[in-house]
Amino acid sequence: MPLSFNLVHPSEAIKESISKKLSGKKIILALTGGIACVECVKLARQLIRHGADVYAVMSKEACRILSTIAMEFATGKEVITELGGKVEHVSHDADLMLIAPCTANTVAKIALGIADNAVTTFAIAFDGKILLAPSMHLSMYENEFFKENLRRCEEKGIGVIPPKIEENKAKMADVDRIVAEVLRELRGDKKGKKILVIGGATQEAIDDVRVITNLSSGKMARAIANEAYERGMEVTVWASFDMPDYIKTKKFRSVNDLINLVEKAKEKYDAVINCAAISDFVVDKKKGKISSGKEIMLKLKPAPRINPMLRKIGKTIVAFKLEEKKESLEKKAREMIARDGVDIVIGNTLESLGKDTAKIWIMDKNGVIARAEGKKEEIAEKIIDLI
Asked: pLDDT tens for residues 304-362?
């Protein structure tokens, strides 16, 4: 019997494995002759995991660094290295062109309208959004000729993903950053809106070495902040955990730290979403280190409430309320709205604490207005839709 083969390409097996945020989108991934080409297999695969169809175009210099076979494997599609009778540069219907890595030479050619290889010809002919991810030695990146060429590209509406400056090089941005910028460009329906996300757990000092805290992971806040960024918002995060360096972040530890952030805030936000696990109590801190091996008594005092303070910096205030059982959520939400002056309360229960999934009830003064269940990234999308 003749051999039979499964002709489904391996790239199809990973499609939409992370999300469907780029489903139906076609992306031209153009590679030029920088060593960062070696990251483009991973980059292509990540875009596919969000649902995109990725088509690779490579300059001859890029092919000296990375095989076309590698990019054909990554994308599941034939790689374009030169133009032929199919007039590939004008016969496509892509939603976005991403040039990564983008060399100084390629930036100069695009700025001057030179189309002398597959990549630059695609760029000159492309009438959609183009994103560049520069990669080169630092001296080239800081050169005045390069800066002028980059400025010309930006004036033509071409977006630039800033490189990482390290080891005397302007290295291509990390894959996660590039994917975030692609998502932001293709999903940016909330551009012009400013949002503050507060998340994580507070720590209240017992002495100079010990604290009381809680089990909040910050996953919900991180998901909301990432979703807001991808939707085009100007995002600020106050958090007890680290965020990507392209999202403006201020760190806090205690309730008092948060109060100071509110009091010193100079910006006004269209929405403030507070999903931090803020301690309801603070401690009379002891100086030094309390000796071990003996019983001690801690005096806990009610902590100031942060939510009422947020009204002076935000138009819409969204607060989270965690309860042991869902039956008490609506009553507690009404009480929070009346007491704290927030607009929306998002209720959840202990079963979502620290997990990647959650079940939430979104409530205003009239009661439950929406429900959501699933991955926290999916819930974050519904929350941003709502506000």
From this structure: 999 999 999 999 999 999 888 788 888 999 999 999 999 999 998 888 777 889 899 99
Which residues make Cβ contacts (< 8 Å) with residue 24, sequence separation at least 6? 51
Q: Would 141 be classed as within a structural domain?
A: yes
Evaluate if residue 3 carries a pLDDT over 90.
no
On whether both 247 and 117 belong to a single domain, the answer is: no
pLDDT tens digits for range 164-189: 999 999 999 999 999 999 999 999 99
Say whether 334 sits in a helix, a strand or coil: helix
270 in a structural domain: yes
pTM: 0.92
% the chain with pLDDT above 90 = 82
- pLDDT tens for 91-116 read 789 999 999 999 999 999 999 999 99
Look up the CATH number of the domain holding residue 237. 3.40.50.10300
Amino acid in the structure at residue 264: K
Paired tokens of 119: 């990549």
Is the CB of residue 101 less than 8 Å from the CB of residue 114? no
Shared-domain flag, residues 305 and 342? yes
Helix (H, G, I), strand (E, B) or coil at 117: coil
Residue range(s) defining the domain that contains residue 284: 194-386
Q: Specify the number of domains making up the chain.
A: 2
Asked if residue 6 belongs to a domain, the reply is no
Mean pLDDT of the chain: 93
Token pair in block for residue 255 = 């309730």
Give all strands (DSSP E) within 241-289, no chain letters.
Answer: 248-251, 269-274, 281-283
Instruction: Tell whether 234 and 107 lie within a shared domain.
Output: no
Residues 205 and 297 in one domain: yes
In angstroms, the CA 99 to CA 61 distance is 14
Q: Mean per-residue pLDDT for 198-220?
A: 93
The answer to whether residues 213 and 156 belong to one domain is: no
Residue 136 belongs to what H/E stretch? strand 136-137
Of 223, 176, 231, 229, give the one whose Cα is nearest residue 46: 176
Q: Domain containing 77 — which CATH number?
A: 3.40.50.1950
The answer on 93 and 109 residing in a single domain is: yes
CA distances from residue 197 to 1, 113, 297, 320 in whole angstroms, order as listed = 62, 42, 35, 12
70: Cβ contacts below 8 Å, ≥ 6 apart: 41
Peptide linkage before 101 cis (omega within 30 of 0): yes
Which residue, among 59, 385, 91, 354, has the nearest Cα to 219 in the 3D structure? 354
